[in-house]
Write a structure and sequence with these properties.
This protein has helices at 49-57, 79-89, 105-110, 120-133, 149-161, 179-194, 236-239, 252-261, 269-276, 280-288, 294-308, 314-322, 334-353, 358-372, 379-393, 399-407, 419-436; strands at residues 6-15, 23-33, 38-42, 64-69, 72-73, 90-94, 167-171, 199-204, 215-220, 223-229. It is α/β, with parallel strands linked by helices. It folds into three domains: 6-250, Rossmann fold (3-Layer(aba) Sandwich); 257-353, no CATH class; 358-436. The strands form two sheets. The chain has a six-stranded mixed β-sheet with strand order 6-7-8-3-9-10, with helices on both faces. The chain has a four-stranded antiparallel β-sheet with strand order 2-1-4-5. Strand 7, helix 6 (179-194) and strand 8 form a beta-alpha-beta unit. Helix 13 (334-353) crosses helix 17 (419-436). Bound molecules: adenosine-5'-diphosphate (ADP) and magnesium ion. Magnesium ion binds next to helix 1.
Amino acid sequence: MNKPIIVVDKLRVIYNQGKSNEMRALEETNLSIYPEEYVIIYGPSGCGKSTLLYSISGLQSPTYGDVYIRNKAISKMTEEEELRLHQTGIGMIFQAFYLISSLDILENVCLPKVFRGEKPSDRKKEGVRLLRRFGIVEQADKFPSQLSGGQKQRVAIARSLVNNPEIILADEPVGNLDSESAENVLKILKELNDIDKKTIILVTHNPEHLVYADRVIHMKDGRITKEEVFKEKRPPEELANKQEYGPIDRSPESSELKMLMSSFKSLLPQQVDVLLVPFKAKQLLNHLLSELSDEQVSIAEAFMKELLFKNIDMQTFAEHLDLDLDEGGAGWNKVRARSFAERTQAIIEQVNGLKDSPEQSALSLTEYLTTLFHLKLTETQKLRFQATLKLRLESQIGQIELEKRLDTRVSADGVGIHKTTAEKIVREIEVLMLLKYS
Ligand code: ADP
Ligand code: MG
């Protein structure tokens, strides 16, 4: 109990190293966190809080230095160990919730369990228990869009807990909530620390939240500047070699650059997608399906997983979708199984096409979407379509901006695609991008 659960050791993070837009987000940082501590990382926007938190979670790789979880460097973990860390070691909560809109609330909560080989009935039991605990069990069958912000964040907390991790990391979890919902969520996190003995690290720029912490780590310009201890939970013998935090050196041009950079959204789609890796099969399936029974879907999901893991080929996949349920198949009819397999094949091929250079990817994506949606584009439209897709692939624009540019008139510098088609294109691209990161 008296050894740190997390050690940040001479960690530095530099984005775009060696390029003109190089950004030193985190200067050399040392930090030890002990089991059952509630630590808040506090500082102004752009000071490197999220970078530190994502480095601790393993979503962000260090440029220099290392992060150790229970004495094991994340960079030295095998794929298997890292997967286990994300599935059961650490629960993450974000400001933007990241619930999947096509899944109901209970399914969202149970997502992290989907690929841990548990029976649907078992995983639902734990999901229901958590929803009940957080007062949202009546919402179980609803979809995320039907819930308030505060309810959505409670769903996201339940999801982060469903595999019972020891550590909970929360990045500005109440940043989008009204003050009453915010307090509710902060109380839940406090309770998880007090009663469930979870180690919690919360990132915030709001000084009103600091009262909840045992220890507050203050950050500025990519450095830890000081710490405040409200409740000492660290063992006395460990405090002897306590970290000293040095003065900040502040060069005007670097803070100006930081100001500019902080206007970018801090959480990249890639970082989110890493978290979603185990859910890809489910996500792809949801994109392709609507009217099948639960059993037909869950068996197909298992085959889809085998396919994405490359344990079976497309032929075997299609055949098994078509086999009757009592013969070990998914019980679909032949026509549906075949067209479904073809569509899956096309998507997977296109995903591979996205691994080329941005120019190449945007070009092949343009051709793929033009064929899929039977688009009839002029040369100007086609060029704009391609340029817009490239921006999305490079995460320079998000899905809302993408949709806006697609359905804006050509005369107003848009691509001029009909609104309903633009919506479908956006959904297709989001699935492709999700599948791309592995
Ligand atoms: P905070 O969470 O405290 O607002 P971040 O850790 O998100 O700060 O960002 C620290 C600095 O690094 C900011 O200036 C931000 O703009 C920049 N930054 C964050 N992520 C990236 C990235 N992926 N590429 C380039 N710069 C980034
Ligand atoms: Mg942040």
